[in-house]
Amino acid sequence: MNKSEATTKKITISRQAGDWYLSCSYEFHATTTPKKTDVVGVDLGVKTLATLSDGKVFESVSSYQSMTAKLSRMQYLNRHKEIGSANWRAAQLKIARLHGKVAFHVAQRNIRKDALHKLTTYLAQNHGSVVIEV
Length: 134
Fold this sequence. Notes:
The protein has helices at residues 62-78, 86-103, 111-126, and strands at 7-16, 19-27, 37-44, 48-52, 57-59, 127-132. It is of the alpha+beta class. Helix 1 (62-78) runs antiparallel to helix 2. The longest helix has 18 residues, at 86-103. The radius of gyration is 20 Å and the shape is flat.
């Protein structure tokens, strides 16, 4: 793709949990990539993130479980703080930052989003059709 082929459509600046983010939307003409196999089945599981019909296994993110446990603990400790106090505000900011780490991956951040992005990118680059068990 040449730089002249992309057109900027939308730019959004947002703030979440004390951090600033810039989001850009582009329009461009994508090229297809050669696929290794035409069809692959995906089984989403509890112990693993996904298992493909060709035998490849995508493991669940282990740090995700530890982060959710930490989040639960922080929310538990925050429940008796007086709403609106300085300690309550500080705790709410910590909880919001931890929610950001769990939900989305930029050097220990955005864990879930990063794992799903890696899975979907692999599927899109290597397989023509994807069938998911419901």
